[in-house]
Structures are given as C-alpha cells and as structure tokens.
C-alpha cells in the first residue's frame, strides 16, 4: 500500500513537472511570437542598423568637410531632435509638428537659383547638379543625413524597430519616414527662388507623376518668384515615352500656372 502511494506521488510530481515545463515553454514561445510578429507586422524595411550613430557621423562630416560654412550647426542637438521626433511613438501617426524642432535646427536653405528637383531620376539629377554647382534636396544638411536610411520606433519603447517599418502605400502614408521627406521637400520648395531645375524621366509613360514627392509636395509649394526649367531625360537605348508636349507635362504646367510660376521644358537631355 505504501509503495502504491509513493508511486502515485511520483506520478503526480512528474505530471506537475511536465505541465510546468510545458507552461514555461509555451509562454516563452508565445512571448517570442508576439514580439516578433509585432515588430515584423509592417511591409517596409526596418530601421537602418546604427541609425543614431550614422546620423551623428554624417552631421559631423557635412558641417566640417562638405559645408564648412555650416560648422556652427549643433550636430548633437540635431541628432537628438531627429531621434526625439519618432522614438516611443506610433509609427503610423507622424505629424509635421513632430519634425519642427529638427527643421528649426537645420532649415534646408539653398542659394537663389541653385535648387534642382527630381522625380525618378535621383542619381542623374545629383550628377547633373554636381557638375553645375547646383544642389538637390539630398545636398542639404537634413537631406544628407537621412539619404538612403530608414527608421521607425514603437510606442512606449526607446528602441528602433529593426524588423520592419510602415510602407507608404501598404500600411500608412503618415509614417515618420514619409512625413520627414514631405516636410523637408515642402521647405526646400518654399525656399527656392530664381531659375531652378527639375529633372524628369521621359523614358516612362508619365514623366510628371502627380503622386510623387515632386508632384504632391514640391510643385505645389513653389512660389511665384521661381522660374522652373524642366529637363526630360531619355535612356539612350530606349524610345521616349513622354515629351514636353505630353499630357503629364501639361498637367504640371497647369499646376504651375495656378501658382504664377513661369515654366519652360526641354526634351532629350542625355
């Protein structure tokens, strides 16, 4: 009888231990899955590794080597303002006001007549600008800092989300990456004066895309003191698919006419 009770106790202990191990394992797996799927729920790529360090280093490089005349800029303050704009916040609830402290520290100013805009021609536009002493948005301090990077945070967390960030089309348009470039582009356009350029891709069907940053933001924020020259570039090995007489360019011209912005267009810039 005693042996039987002892065996029952052992069996109970074994069953209890199994339940305990299963509970701990299941809980750990559940927490892991919850955290992983939570951080991986967006469709865009995650934050760039070492994001804060890269921002700080780029700021130092820009102010000390690329534009020594901006050496008075507070890179530590700029880096902190950048991080504070989105850390611990819902990545789909960005506002322009979140970036205002950052913009105040490094307003994207460009000398009159030196601005170059682009749409689907980034590298060519930058090459075009560099060869003529002109400046694209990515040549301003904040544009230089953020170029090629991605970033987002999580509500209540001081960490960045390195797994995924919201995609503008698939998740939400009010994400911190998209709103940053919209705010910066808006200021860049508002600051433009004199004769400025835009480099557009004439090898695609709509050289002027009204849903691009240039189409949605920059074209609508140019002032009447601007003369905009559009250059339609074409791939040498491909036939042109749009021209200065095309409907998309006419749409751009209509927007500019409504803002009293003078406009010219030239085809076949190679």
TrEMBL record:
EC number: 2.4.99.20, 3.2.2.6
GO molecular function annotation: NAD+ nucleosidase activity, cyclic ADP-ribose generating; phosphorus-oxygen lyase activity; transferase activity
Keyword match Glycoprotein: yes
Name under which the protein is recorded: ADP-ribosyl cyclase/cyclic ADP-ribose hydrolase 1
Reactions the enzyme catalyzes: NAD(+) + H2O = ADP-D-ribose + nicotinamide + H(+)
Membrane topology of this protein: Single-pass type II membrane protein
PANTHER family: ADP-RIBOSYL CYCLASE, ADP-RIBOSYL CYCLASE_CYCLIC ADP-RIBOSE HYDROLASE 1
GO cellular component, one term: plasma membrane
Family assignment from sequence similarity: Belongs to the ADP-ribosyl cyclase family.
Domain of life according to the entry: Eukaryota
GO-annotated biological processes: positive regulation of B cell proliferation
Protein localization: Membrane
UniProt xrefs under InterPro entries: ADP-ribosyl_cyclase (IPR003193)
Transmembrane segments: 12-32
Subunit structure: Homodimer.
UniProt keyword annotations, A-Z: Disulfide bond, Glycoprotein, Hydrolase, Membrane, NAD, NADP, Signal-anchor, Transferase, Transmembrane, Transmembrane helix
One Pfam family named in its UniProt record: Rib_hydrolayse
Source species: Moschus moschiferus (Siberian musk deer)
Keyword NADP: yes
